[in-house]
Amino acid sequence: MSVLTLSASDFDPDVRVAAFQDAVASMCRLQITPADDAAFHSHTTIGLLPGLMTGQTMHSRCDVVRTKALAAETGDNIMVHVPLSGGFSMYQQGGSNVVCTPGSVYLDPNELPGSAEFHGERNDAFYLSIPRAFLASAGTSLNGALREVQPVTPQWRLLLRYARSLHEELALLPAEEIATCSSHIHDLTIMAMGASREAEEIARGRGVRAARLKAIKADIEQNLVSPQLDSGWIAARHSISPRYIRSLFAGEGTSFRDYVARRRLLLAHRRLCDPAQSMLGISEIALSCGFSDLSWFNASFRRTFGRTPRDVRAEALAAAFAAR
User: So which domain of life are we looking at (predicted)?
Assistant: First the structure.
């Protein structure tokens, strides 16, 4: 797995456009014609994963063409175009003229020639490129979705949140976890396209559950010390049942309550180790981290970290003093 960062400004102005389109050829084979050669700018990051490429790009107004010759070099991939700002008009062989703007997605069969015009002075977009073989279980829904603009449904939002988060964290994840996440993207894409019932059930058991759990954990983190934080409150925010939330955490060998307690204990541990918070009492820190029962906090802290809160604070302050 690797992450590539490419900027048009890195190339000599005399060859900037040609050099840039050669550099991004790992994701797409296109001829780029800027509205203004001298002012052309683009910044792109590409993630190369098993059975998947992700891309985040920003570029100026331009036209792009995929000729028959370039299309023949792309392989049998499906590219998901997701405009974040600006937008484009597109025509591909066998399709119709379409316009794609933020709030919609376009599924591009890379093996077909076509052309596009990017409208805005600044165009931000996110891309996924997936070999067609990984989407085969979607059945007829795949072919029916190609060369068409689709609205961003809840299923697409679920996929895109997961995919963009994965793209941002790629450089920090171990290879085996990246491979697992890549398979989740395949499943979520099948779901978003409106797969057959059989394919949907397969995907629901993997990618959708993983994305749901990731979104719920992120929400927990943002509301970690809120007194409202419980499974019912989170379930209502995500329009799912508390029972489904319990099943998600059970699949990881824990419970919602234990997961929240663990995250709060880690937060308390960080604050106790922070010299800047040494003037706060241990009970104040416990309460600020969402613990209302101090006896339970002390017992749980010692069981988790093998030391009392007082011992952890003393060791951290001693280490900070010695480092001066």
Answer: Bacteria
The dihedral of CA 95, 101, 105, 107: what is its sign? positive
Tell which of 222, 250, 270 closes a domain: 222
In 10 A of CB 94, how many CB atoms?
11
Tell me: do 178 and 95 sit in the same domain.
yes
Q: Tell me which residue range forms the domain holding 277.
A: 261-322
Q: Would residue 234 count as lying in a domain? A: no
Same domain for 266 and 210: no
Q: Is residue 255 included in any domain, yes or no?
A: no
Report the predicted TM-score, pTM, of the whole model to 2 decimal places.
Answer: 0.58
CA distance 72 to 44: 23
Token pair recorded at residue 180: 């697992």
Phi then psi for 104, rounded to 5 degrees?
-140, 165
Which residues share a beta bridge with 125?
Answer: 57, 83
Domain end call among 174, 207, 222: 222
pLDDT in tens, the chain (324 residues): 578 787 777 777 777 677 776 766 655 667 777 767 777 777 888 888 888 899 898 888 888 888 887 777 766 788 899 999 988 898 888 778 889 999 999 988 877 888 888 887 889 999 999 887 777 665 555 666 788 888 998 889 999 999 999 999 988 888 888 888 888 888 888 888 875 444 444 455 556 677 788 888 989 999 999 989 999 999 888 888 888 888 788 877 788 999 999 999 999 999 999 888 888 999 999 999 999 889 999 999 998 889 899 998 988 888 877 766
Is residue 243 in some structural domain? no
**Gap between the Cα atoms of 83 and 27, Å rounded:** 16
CA end-to-end span of the chain, whole Å? 41
